Amino acid sequence: SFIELNEQNLQLVxxxxxxYLFIFFILIFIDIRNSIKNNINxxxxxxxxxxxxxxxxxxxxxxxxxxxxxxxxFSFALxxxxxxxxxxxxxxxxxxxxxxxxxxxxKIQSEIxxxxxxxxxxxxxxxxxxxxxxxxxxxxxxIRDIDQLYxxxxxxxxxxxxxxxxxIKIEDQAIEMVRTDDRPLKIINAPENRSxxxxxxxxxxxxxxxxxxxxDKNNFKITTLEDLKYLKSENYYGIxxxxxxxxxxxxxxxxxxxxxxxxxxxxxxxxxxxxxxIIDGLLGAMRKSDIGTLFPSNSNKFKNIRSKNMLKPxxxxxxxxxxxxxxxxxxxxxxxxxxxxxRGKIIKSLSDLLFVDKSLINFKGKTVEKLGIIGKEQxxxxxxxxxxxx
Length: 390
Description:
This protein is α+β, with helices and mostly antiparallel strands and about 400 residues long. About 45% of the residues lie in helices and about 20% in strands. It contains ten helices and 14 strands. The strands form four sheets. It has a five-stranded antiparallel β-sheet, with helices on both faces. It is elongated, with a radius of gyration of 39 Å.
């Protein structure tokens, strides 16, 4: 009772208890054996062996009782100690599980709000350009780390799904709860390893966003052969490069943005070296030849074409082949214009054209220390590395 059991002294106390009992019994045994073999002098008289044996037995029996009682008390203390440990572990496990589910619930709530915001922003291409909208939907599904993303109507029927994933109809009660409420509704189904949310899209007619995320990706449920594709992901990389000479009396376009400058880039198209390099990088990652094959410079069909219109079929090609953009790293090589002044506009433009989050685009500027035609501000070059997954 005066020793507090813990993980450090538990084993030591048990060993000491057993050792002390063992030594005690050995001493009693030795004393009795010596008494049987030899007479013992007690103040000049010889003690009777029978008396010594009887005394030893009366000493041994209480000692045994004390030892048994000591082990019983020790066993009781151990039981209480481990009961406390188990109770603590169970309580901690419950708290961990509860916090984990709460974290997933709150995460999917924030993600669906962000996705809904982006979808409402691009609602104009929903009907005018279904392919671009589908590509945008697929990209949202990737960058937001959502397992399933659907657009449904007010009766729960599927309108469109990201990555053509199978749709399990949402409960009618869930749609009713968000029909007149702009806040998202969270749906947690821990036994099915799923966390979901639904929200009304304000800029769409009779359309709701429904997203699903697995609580634990390592515990993904496989029911069909189609589900196996989610267990493996392949990454591909492509390098793009382009360079154009600067000429007077022409507008300068970089990354789809018109840049105030004294010269523009000479080319069969508008000469946008950033978009041309991105197109080549994406085509290279998909192993789909190059920009010259899709848009030959000897064809009048593409004379003076805007480069962002050249990028559109490449984005559609990504979508048709179930590719997603992971990252785009851009180096613009020029003396002027200064990248620091145009970085924000170009990243926003590329984000809109590629239907990816701005965080997936990195844009840097490099000079050549006044060397060559680029150093003399007679040309601008761009190199790009694209990472995509399937």
